[in-house]
Amino acid sequence: MRIDFFTLFGEWFDWFGGQRHVRNALEHGSELRYVNYRDSTPLSGRQVDDSPYGGGAGMVLRVDVVDAALRAVYGEDSPARVILLTPAGRPFDERLAAELAAEPHLALLCGRYEGVDERVRAHLVDDAISVGPYVLSGGELAAMVVADAVIRKLPGSLGHADSAVEESFSAALGGLPEYPHYTRPASYRGWGVPEVLLSGDHAKVAEWRRVRSRERAEPG
Ligand code: SAM
Asked: How far is CA 63 from CA 48, 57, 104, 173, in A?
C-alpha cells in the first residue's frame, strides 16, 4: 500500500514514520510519501490560504492550492482514494479502517487553520473522514490516526499477525470491544486474576471472554 500525506507540516510525521509497526510495513513493501501544499502552490510567496468569503476569523486553505498539489503528484486522474480529514466527515471506525486497508493507494489531505475551501470536499476528494467529534489544530494527527489503524492491518506490520485479527470491533469478536487481559503476577496487592483464566480450560476461557466482551459493549 502507498499512503501520501498532503500537509503544511511534514515534520509532524517524522516520529510516525519511525515507529516499529510502520517500519515493518515499509519493509514489506508499503510506501509513505509527504507532500507540502506550498511546493506546488500557484500563488506567489508560497501562499496557500486566504481569508473566508463572508468574513470571520482565521484563514482557509484554497481550492486551487489543493488542486495544484494533487495534480503535481497524480496528474489529471488520481490513482489514489483521496480523503479529506475534517471534523465534519464520516466517523472513522474499525470497519472503515479495514475498508481502507484493502485499498492499494490512499491520499490523506490535512487541513489547517479555519479549514479547507468546501469545493475541495465537493469536487476533489472521494471521502471526508472525522476521527471524532472534537476539533484538532490540524489534520496531521487525524491522518496519523487513520494511517495507524490502517497500517496495523497490513501483512507484516505487527509482530504477531493474529494480533490484528481478534481485537476490539473486529469481525472475529462480532464487532464488540475486546475482553480484558491479565498477565503475571497472578496476585498483586491483593488484586487477583479471574480463576477461569488460570484453569487451562480453553472452552471456559472462550466463554468467559465472550461474556466480558458483551458486557463491555453495554453502555454504562
Ligand atoms: N473550523 C473547523 C471547524 O470548526 O470544523 C476546524 C478546523 S481545524 C482547526 C483544522 C483542520 O484540522 C481541519 O481542516 C481538519 O483537516 C483537521 N481536523 C480537526 N479536527 C479533526 C477531526 N476531528 N477529524 C479530522 N480532522 C480534523
From this structure: 9, 18, 26, 42
| Rg, Å, the chain Cα set | 21
Instruction: Indicate the pTM of the whole model.
Output: 0.95
Determine the Cα–Cα distance for residues 72 and 97; give it in Å rounded to an integer: 27
Ligand 1 nearest-atom number relative to CA 58: 1
Which pLDDT does position 162 carry in this prediction?
66
C-alpha distances in Å from residue 52, one per residue of 45, 116, 120, 135:
19, 10, 14, 19
Model pLDDT for residues 67-110, shown as the tens digit of each residue: 999 999 999 999 999 999 999 999 999 999 999 999 999 999 99
Contact 110 CB / ligand 1 (< 6 Å)? yes
Q: How far is the CA of 108 from the centre of ligand 1 (A)?
A: 13
* pLDDT one-digit tens code per residue, 196-219: 999 999 999 999 999 999 999 997
130 CB neighbour count, 10 Å cutoff: 18
| Dist. CA 82 → ligand 1 center (Å) | 17
- Whether the CB-CB separation of 143 and 110 falls below 8 Å is answered with yes
User: Separation of 86 CA from ligand 1 center, angstroms?
Assistant: 5
For the chain, which residues make up each domain, given as ranges?
2-151, 171-217
- DSSP code of residue 178: P
CATH of region 2-151: 3.40.1280.10
CATH superfamily entry for domain 171-217 = tRNA(m1g37)methyltransferase, domain 2 (1.10.1270.20)
